[in-house]
Amino acid sequence: MKTRKLIIALLFLLSLQTSYAQTKTFNGDTTAYWRQQNAGFLNNLKLKNLEQSEDEFNFRLWDDGQVIEIRKNNSVITGVIVNYIYHFKNNKYYNSKIIADTIALSAEQAKTAYKLIQNSEILAIPTDHEINGWHQGLDGITYTIEYSDKDNYWLKTYWTPSAQDSVPEATTVLNFLKNISDSLDLNGKYNTFKNTLLPKGCYSRGGISAMCFPRNTLGLGYSGSTKLPFGFYTWYSADYIGKTHVNMGAGLQYNFDGKGFYRLNTYASRWQLFYKQQNLSDFLIYNYQNNKINIPETDNYFQNHQLTYGLTIKNNVSIGVGIDYLLSYNRKIGGHLYAAKTFSKPNIRAELSSSLFSDQINYKVALLKYFRYDHKTMLNRLNIGVSYEDYMDYRDLYFKVLLWL
Fold first, then answer.
1. Does residue 89 register a pLDDT over 70?
2. Does pTM top 0.85 for this prediction?
3. 186: containing domain
């Protein structure tokens, strides 16, 4: 019985403490949607709710992707900077998580920031809705300030102070933002934080813009022809491996007829070797072919080593030149030419390649149609291709279907 009474007494005291923590007077933008939705966000960033804080003084400045917090109890002043960003894996915007990093300020940094707050008049300025002439907009940036003592809590928002003409309070806000940013090197600390992020998916600081990295993709599909009806095709493309910018791809194509004849193609490519501009980039492609094909009056066995260097210029035009080393009943070295054009609106790519030997010309003409899928699906895109090839007087029509994951 005594134990039960003790538990009831403890629960009663706890309820009194909770009630006391929530009896602060609210000031400023008390109807803000941001305040109503902020509890879960504070938990993700491991920040306390200032509406219930028992500290002598708390100040918190919210910028897109960054929080600055200064706290004072008695004569002890502390502070932290929290850098955060929203990460969308594989460019899937409907499924994000918050990545955050907390930096503790030194005693001197915290003291300097506290003095800036006290001397800047930022605490005396009302929220922007209460300032005459402060207009609102749809885009831009909103700065949010929270501060509290033991009895009061304030929430104030300031939409794009740089866009407020002839509003004295906006000048005060801008001066404060600049001074605290310079004092704590906020831009430098955020750039250091961004450099730790893996180049994968998309990142957003909470505004309308996002920074996206090309996703590594794997393609799997069917490849066949009129003479070699069975086969498969696979390709892997990677802009980054970890944090290393590789810009590489590799592929394998195999066709066969079940009677001993086959064609094997392996590919390796690298792009943006020396040129990385939007309207000028370069590429290097290595292709190895191992063929056993039905050509009368030959040994039916051929190998090729092809190396091609080329440029992609504006309007999605690619041209390349290289060498082709042919191994069969004798050895030949010839030139290799490549040209391609991508038409963005119909999503079609046309390609032409040719190997030129002293007594033989091989060529291949290909047409590729690709379909892009919604980012919520597992598939990235679907390619459907058809090509015609004349290889050592062996002519065949090829078909390809490739799903990109």
1. yes
2. no
3. 22-211
